[in-house]
Write a structure and sequence with these properties.
This protein is mostly helical. The protein has helices at 5-12, 21-30, 35-42, 52-62, and strands spanning 19-20, 48-49. The protein has a two-stranded antiparallel sheet with strand order 1-2.
């Protein structure tokens, strides 16, 4: 299964920024993210994201 940025954004809606990669992973686990989505979050290059745009840009680099 491929995961799109849009799917990830749906799971991550409602997050408060800045947010750490660990918080993103925890949020995904608590909200039923698939294994593929969790792996994508774990592969993010930065440890912290200051805005949804920054997170989206990082997700784009993974696809």
């Amino acid at each position: 299964m491929t995961v799109t940025g849009v799917q990830l954004q749906e799971y991550l809606a409602g997050l408060d920024y800045p947010v750490s990669r660990e918080d993103l992973i925890r949020w995904g686990q608590e909200n039923g993210a698939s294994t593929a989505m969790l792996q994508m979050l774990q592969a993010l290059p930065a440890d912290q994201f200051d805005s949804p745009d920054e997170l989206s840009a990082a997700l784009t680099t993974l696809s």
